[in-house]
Write a structure and sequence with these properties.
Elements: H1 4-27, H2 30-71
Helix pairs in contact: 1-2
């Protein structure tokens, strides 16, 4: 699993972005709404990239383990 600090920062950015977006909608501030939406989407992208990285690492470890078992036979 990717670092907990990075994941918590992604979550913080997503929540902050959603807050800015809601504030922008409530006040009619399109700039703040767009800024919030961009921050939230950016956090989603980072989170998904971390998940993909984790899956790649797990797949590599599985392959490494299978080759290691063959070497011991």
């Amino acid at each position: 699993m990717a670092d907990l600090e990075g994941r918590s920062k992604d979550l913080k950015d997503k929540v902050a972005g959603e807050g800015k977006e809601a504030y922008g909608k409530a006040t009619g501030d399109k700039s703040k709404e767009t800024e919030g939406k961009a921050q939230s989407v950016g956090a989603d992208i980072k989170s998904k990239a971390r998940n993909i990285g984790d899956e790649i690492k797990e797949g590599f470890e599985d392959v490494k383990e299978k080759f290691s078992k063959k070497d011991h036979k």
